[in-house]
Amino acid sequence: MTVSLRRRLAPLPRAAWRYVRRAPGTFVWLGILLATSIVVHRLSPGAERHVLGSRSTNLHHLQEDPLRVLVTSAFWLAGGGWPLYFVVYNLFHVPAERWLGTLRWLAVVVIAHVGATYLSEGVLYWAIQHGHAPESAAFTLDVGVSYGLAGVVAVLTYRIAKPWRFVYLAGVLVFFGVPLLSSPNFTDVGHFTAVLIGLACYPIVRGRPGVWDPVAAVRSLRRRAHRPTAAAVRQSTDSPVTE
Hints:
Largest sheet: none
Low-confidence stretches: 229-243
Number of domains: 1
Oligomer: single chain
Shape: globular
Helix content: over 70%
């Protein structure tokens, strides 16, 4: 490794730590999800079903031990996929936590997770009672972080400057609404409910500073891209002038 490359890489660890420190809740959550995903990956299929099933927020567990499953279900991913969630968390949870602060961000996550879980399972209970779903659906697997994520995705609508806010909102409603209209199941109900809950969290985010304008952000990136580096400036000033 050349001296020049070492100098360029030297600030990276400190910059990465500053990045993580500004959204501690998100990265603690990601760390726990990584650990539980590794555990699930090493289990046999039968053991995996048992571990995830015991943490499922299904109708049976919500009746028997609701607090335990509502908490533990948020720290397991059915089927893995941690790298994808790492990307998605950085796209949505990180900016939301930085904007709202950890406590307000966590409040949105919890409200969306709990509210969407109970409403979606309530719809499933209605379907079982009216013969639209088998009684075994009361034991269905329902773990994961997607309801809290959907709520945060929705609440970020208020972070974006107008008129782009409405474009973003339309995209969110289409993304979560199309599955609900095409072939709905209780998780689709839960996701769309979480979006509505996230939008209803406006009193939590009202007055928070720092509206993000995507056009201004692109212009800023262009200016930085065309700005000469310090090394280039030094090279131009050190070069001899010839006539």
